[in-house]
Amino acid sequence: MDYLLAVDDGSRVGALRFRDEEGIFRRAPEAGCRTAPPLLELRQIQDASRAVEEGTETAADLTYLRGRGTSLGGLRPKCTVLDEDGALAIGKFPSVQDERPITKGEVLAMHLAKAAGINAAETHLVDSDGVPVALVRRFDRTPDGKRRMYVSAATLLGVERNDSEDHSYTEIVDALRVHGAAVQADIEELWRRMAFSILITNVDDHLHNHGFLHAEGDLWRLAPAFDLNPFPDRVRELKTWVSVETGPAATIEALMSVIAYFRVGARRAKEILRAVERAVNSWRKTGRALGLTDRELDQFAEAFEHPERKAAQMAVR
Prior knowledge:
By secondary structure, the protein is an alpha+beta fold.
């Protein structure tokens, strides 16, 4: 409870909030005050976060960071900030342990996702005194700042945090058929995202990296895609399996084996896969447009150039 109540009320995920016995929201900002910092404070946040990572933080660093973190999970340094339009966004910083430009890779993946026809969160790079920060617009807020109810796929499936069982995309399909407000549209979108993850080696696709926004009543819609990252140094196995039958294999064969379960016709599946493969094929061109150097792009090459790309090209012929 101490951790839950210490988080800034304005940046809590979705519409979840906490009130005390007197009906007062805990950690709500006072009138005329803000808690989420503006972009101009990114450098200060970065410096304080890096000090914590390196174990050299001071009391001043911790005092500054208190309330500027988020209740979002993940291992990478991040915080809630106000973007150029004054909307809530997540700022993701490079880590001292990074061996490649991770933040640039995520922004590249998010731009490729949009090119592939995926509904992805608005993401762009911000230069903070030479430090590349990935800025992701929060989609659990409306344009006028109101909160939108959000749950992860783990919550929708009733999966506990310490659950050790393997789970699959077909389970998410089952949940959508029960709780979905636009069932077939979201199932097809989910299949498109699977194809994209396979082709960019996004193998950190666990259930907390899929989410849903409330539509009406007890119905939900698939939230915009987020946390898409190319992993050139990882084994090509998905955290969320395509199905129980395929296991963790991140292959086009596994992807195509479930089109009937997803009720995606063979012709439509080829159309989607063709669009995704074409978008991924432009990864170097898109990366250069985003400011990545050839050397930086080379560090991601194995995530984009692999046999499954060829398999996708063969599958759509």
